[in-house]
Amino acid sequence: MKTEKQLVGVRGEAEACSYLTGLGHRILRRNWRAGHLELDIITLQGRILHFVEVKTRRGGSGVAPETKVDRTKRERLVRAANAFLNARDRACLPADLEVQFDILTVVFEEPVPVVEYYPQAFIPMYV
Predict the structure, then answer these.
(1) Domain harbouring 79, CATH code
(2) What pairing do the DSSP bridges indicate for beta strands 37-45 and 48-58?
(3) N or C end of the chain: smaller count of CB under 10 Å?
(4) What is the pLDDT of residue 89?
(5) By C-alpha distance, which of 38, 57, 45, 49 is closest to 116?
(6) By residue range, what is the domain housing residue 82?
(7) Residue 117 falls within a domain, yes or no?
(8) Within a domain: residue 127?
(9) Per the domain annotation, does 78 fall within a domain?
(10) CA atoms within 13 A of residue 124's CA, in its CB half-sphere
(11) Quick check: is 71 in a domain?
(12) CB 46 within 8 A of CB 101
């Protein structure tokens, strides 16, 4: 059974997918894993492959969700992206893709969730 926090996260990722689809993204994978590494959402929009980290909070927490993507988290995302790009999953993708690391936040406020999207939120030193 999922905890309340996990259920909020699942709802947040569903909101994120709806939002990204509305922007023209094609969802390729959700919760892609390679060992202990995970990517929340992987999308394709034109010739750009997006690795999207989703941060979800209930309203009133006072902490901006995007601040939780610190240096350590960014390094893990880059390692996970490298694993994805080197995996068999990559075979179905065009060869000349740009790669982008995005953050999408969902804050569940009443009456509707507040979604903020930060495309190309960070540029890694290596990919």
Answers:
(1) 3.40.1350.10
(2) antiparallel
(3) N
(4) 60
(5) 57
(6) 4-122
(7) yes
(8) no
(9) yes
(10) 20
(11) yes
(12) no
| Tokens coding 26 | 């094609």
In this model, does residue 126 exceed pLDDT 70?
no
SS3 assignment, position 27: strand
What DSSP letter does each residue of 61-99 carry, written as one string?
Answer: --S-GGGG--HHHHHHHHHHHHHHHHSGGGGGS-SS-EE
**pLDDT tens digit string along 55-67?**
988 876 666 667 7
Structure tokens that stand for 22 in this block = 């509305």
How many structural domains is the chain composed of? 1
- Whether the CA torsion 19, 76, 69, 102 is positive or negative: it is negative
Q: How far is CA 47 from CA 25, 61, 87, 99, 115, in A?
A: 11, 37, 19, 9, 24
The pTM score is 0.90
Contact 101, 122 (CB under 8 A): yes
Mean pLDDT, range 102-126, rounded to an integer = 89
pLDDT tens, position by position, 48-101? 999 999 998 887 666 666 777 899 999 999 999 999 988 866 657 777 889 999
Distance, in Å, from the CA atom of 57 to the CA atom of 44, rounded to the nearest integer, reads 26
